[in-house]
TrEMBL record, chain A:
InterPro entries per UniProt: Cytochrome_b-558, SQR/QFR_C/D
Superkingdom to which the source organism belongs: Bacteria
Record-given protein name: Succinate dehydrogenase / fumarate reductase cytochrome b subunit
NCBIfam families: sdhC_b558_fam (TIGR02046)
Keywords: Membrane, Transmembrane, Transmembrane helix
From TrEMBL, chain B:
Organism listed in the record: Flavobacterium lacus
Domain 4Fe-4S ferredoxin-type: residue ranges: 157-187
Cofactor: [3Fe-4S] cluster; [2Fe-2S] cluster
MF (Gene Ontology): 2 iron, 2 sulfur cluster binding; electron transfer activity
Regions crossing the membrane: none
Name assigned to this protein: Succinate dehydrogenase / fumarate reductase iron-sulfur subunit
């Protein structure tokens, strides 16, 4: 009995490449839709609430773990395939004319993918890691008018996860404040409700300010590594170039995944190819507009 | 067609004594090549010149010289079977070249196709893939049923015939940047998968042929499409897609 090898065989590996690749295309659409909120005026609260939702909703959590696994699997599988492919031709041609029969993108998927991986690593350090682990992430407060004319003055420390002196405010679990003694140090989490101590009513919410982090990042006038001036401009250029790389990866990758999955027919393939190219242009372009907009306006 | 003329060319040809030795590119000048001659006739002319000069002639594979056997495996100026599409090397003519041209001639480059001598490579890896499943088992003890007694839809018959046009030349492997044999194997899997006679052993066939293909050390397709363009028989990428479907079906 012949054995199938859905993990080890060439075709098995290719199936995983295509499935993870297409899943990542779906992820791109979702991520883009969220990020485009940054282009709307006065989007700070909305964006930060969205960011909170994306890090706390259980369904989103499952999707995000699937995304991490897909990226890892896609990258490792892609590198393994590429190593095998290099081994399959130990002696190179003295003269080759590859552009006569194939496109640039199709021949450079591994290089393009690796560049995307480098981008992902820096991008996740700059935003994802901050959002998840940075204890000194700035906060924004959303003030609610708890009762008509009620003055809702309170003070909360500017950092997350640390204990801060809180004045006139009660946070959930704040036993001392409930007992009437002046509140001392409290842990602030993303989305924490803020209470007015005297009236014991909710007067606001605290959010991790990812919106500010993003705008500061692309507008930063600091020196990169302490030497190269105007790092905000450099980040913007880096992001735009990375989206160009992604565009090339998708230019070939999108339709290629359908071919790999065995979906090739004279009836549908021209449409899939067209959609793939439209996707490869539109999605990275819209992503790239965001840093450009932030850096060059206001 | 314009009248034939004679051209002078420079050839840069891979010379390698045997599988064990290291080879290298040698340069030869060849004058008075008729543009009406085929590429292989031009090589014959070169070999005559080499023999007259008491030098070792260039070894290259050829047999039918009419695009049927698939043995004339030459990588010419960076392309399998040279600068034209839908042809084998024996069907390539010197009218595709100009006076004063420098022409590179190399063997197929693939781990699974080791060089035997000069431009001749060992393509028995393809035979082993074929032997792993590229057949239909029939009882030949006197009661073999005529193949045409089974009705086959015209569309399937056409597609199977198109897949069966593969001559096993290896141009797909040679022109693929990944050294992948998936166009060849896709064609061989398809030609049986499409016909009722082939369906019986379809599961075993695709699993065995793909396993053998991987064992031989061929690379993995990234759908660049180079094979489809360089294939002398116009075998379509649809055959790779069909093989992938067959493989998934056989695996589940
Ligand atoms: C958001 C990120 C990414 C998306 C949306 C994406 C999407 C895709 C798609 C759809 C394919 C086509 C699959 C196929 O031909 O069957 C592909 C292929 C490929 N990707 Fe990615 N990719 C991404 C990131 C990466 C990364 C980080 C690497 C890292 C090395 C990578 C390496 C590759 C390679 C080597 C291939 C060609 C593999 C083959 O065709 O066998 N990709 N990608
Ligand atoms: S698929 Fe085409 S290029 Fe490949 S071996 Fe068959 S005939 Fe030659
Ligand atoms: S010699 Fe037979 S195909 Fe060229």
């Amino acid at each position: 009995m012949a054995k199938s090898a859905l993990l080890k065989s060439s075709i098995g590996k290719k199936y995983w490449m295509a499935l993870t690749g297409l899943f990542l295309c779906l992820f791109l659409v979702g991520h883009l839709a969220g990020n485009l909120q940054l282009l709307m005026p006065n989007s700070q609260l909305q964006f930060n609430q969205y960011a909170l939702f994306m890090t706390s909703n259980p369904a989103v959590k499952i999707l995000s773990y699937l995304t991490y696994i897909s990226i890892l699997f896609h990258a490792i599988d892609g590198i393994l395939l590429t190593i095998q492919n290099k081994k399959a031709r130990p002696v190179a041609y003295a003269k080759s004319n590859p552009s006569a029969n194939s496109s640039f993108a199709s021949r450079n998927m591994a290089v393009l993918g690796t560049l995307v991986l480098v981008f992902l690593a820096t991008h996740m350090t700059n935003f994802w890691a901050k959002m998840h682990f940075d204890k000194s992430m700035p906060l924004m407060t959303q003030t609610i008018e708890a009762a008509p004319g009620m003055k809702s003055e309170y003070y909360v420390g500017r950092s997350v996860g640390q204990y801060y002196q809180v004045d006139q405010v009660k946070l959930p679990g704040d036993k001392e404040a409930e007992a009437g003694t002046p509140p001392k140090q409290l842990e602030v989490k993303n989305g924490t409700d803020v209470y007015n101590v005297q009236a014991n009513v909710k007067v606001g919410e605290l959010y991790k300010d990812l919106h500010k982090i993003t705008f500061d990042f692309f507008k930063s006038k600091n020196k990169l590594f302490g030497v190269i001036p105007n790092e905000g401009l450099l980040f913007t250029i880096f992001y735009v170039l990375s989206m160009l790389v992604l565009a090339y990866h998708l230019w070939h990758g999108f339709q290629s995944a359908f071919q790999t999955l065995g979906l090739n027919s004279p009836k549908w393939t021209p449409t899939i190819k067209f959609l793939g190219k439209a996707f490869a242009v539109l999605v990275p372009l819209l992503f790239a507009i965001i840093p450009l907009y932030i850096h060059f306006t206001k | 067609m314009s009248a034939a003329k004679n051209i002078n060319i420079t050839l840069k040809i891979w010379r390698q004594k045997n599988a064990k030795t290291k080879g290298g590119i040698e340069t030869y000048k060849l004058d008075n090549v008729s543009t009406a001659s085929s590429f292989l006739e031009m090589l014959d002319q070169l070999n005559e010149q080499l023999v007259n000069d008491r030098k070792e002639p260039v070894a290259f594979d050829h047999d039918c010289r009419e695009g049927i056997c698939g043995s004339c495996s030459l990588y010419i100026n960076g392309r399998a079977h040279g600068p034209d599409i839908g042809i084998t090397t024996c069907q390539l003519h010197m009218r595709m070249f100009n006076d004063g041209d420098t022409i590179f001639v190399e063997p197929w480059r693939s781990k699974a196709f080791p060089v035997i001598k000069d431009l001749v490579v060992d393509r028995t890896a393809f035979d082993r893939i074929q032997q792993a499943g590229g057949f239909v088992s029939v009882n030949t003890s006197g009661n073999t049923i005529d193949a045409n007694s089974l009705p086959v839809p015209k569309d399937d018959a056409d597609k199977a015939f198109m897949a069966a046009a593969c001559i096993g030349c290896g141009a797909c492997v040679a022109s693929c940047k990944n050294g992948s044999a998936m166009l060849f194997v896709g064609a061989k899997v398809s030609q049986y998968a499409l016909l009722p006679q082939g369906k019986v052993e379809a599961t075993e066939r695709v699993l065995n042929m793909v396993r053998q293909m991987d064992e031989e050390g061929f690379g993995n397709c990234t759908n660049t499409g180079a094979c489809e363009i360089e294939c002398p028989k116009g075998i379509s990428l649809e055959n790779i897609a069909r093989m992938n479907r067959e493989y998934l079906k056989a695996s589940l």
